[in-house]
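Hello forum,

I keep getting stuck at the same step: I have a sequence, I want structure tokens, and every attempt I make locally crashes halfway through. Rather than fight my setup again tonight, could one of you with a working pipeline run this one for me? It's a single chain of 289 residues.
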Amino acid sequence: MNGYDDSSLSLLPQILDSVQCSHLILYGSDTTCLSRSVYHICDTHFTYPAKTSSDTSGQVCSPTYLTHTGNYHEFSIPQIQHSNLKEMTACLKGLLAKDHTFSVYPYSLLVFRDCQRLKSSLTDMLRVMMEKTSTCRFIFLSEHLGHLSLAIQSRCLSLRCSRPQKEPMPRIGDPLGPGYRLGQRLVAIYDHDNEPLTSSKLRDIKEISNYILRYDLSVQHILCEVCLLIGKHPRWTNDKKGDATALMAVAEYQARKAYHSSLHMEALFISLYHELATADDEVDADQIE
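Reply #2:
Ran it on my machine without issues. Output:
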């Protein structure tokens, strides 16, 4: 399994089968790996038709914070802000009001990722929903159990999931992998027409660089993901893509020999921002991939 290979997670299918267990808290050092592990467990344990992203009882849900799979709905807590809280609340109520997703089990499954950033207002709302619904199960993913309020903890079964000592590197292009998600964020920043580097974009670049250092992610793997996403993007010419690949190759070599690799990553990501500016480029039809 990509992610956690833990005895607690191996019990998850039996726990989900039980009618007595209501809600769950899974906590470990990396919620992205936890999310990927939950996906693989549910994907092999449950067999029923996949749901579409538009099947939400008339509610239009933003893909930035909500992901639909064939087995459950996953909310990304960091993407839920004050500006979209009302929309998210309406979307969640719409999911709770629907008939259960499962063809075998009489409940739906909602997963909330990165709950270490769960705000108090959202905590109170989820607590009320947990008490009122009997057709849905909540799974909270967090780095530490203490990040969740006692009101949530008292209503859930808590399972600590430890990372194995040796974990295989995630597959390149895996949409659930941390490298792919970071690469998507960077490509979204680079998609501009020679615009100046604003303080908000610079802050996002620094946050991505610190995330790589904080979770000890493979620099080589992250750059492979970024290179793959840039190569697939039709916005840039082949010359631009070649120059960007050369920059990443040099930065990867320097990062391996440096003590603080995050500094090289910041410098690289800023250089790529200026290198991939496309205001004066003309993309030929035969250059579009």
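The longest helix spans residues 238-257. If your local run keeps crashing, start a new thread with the error log.
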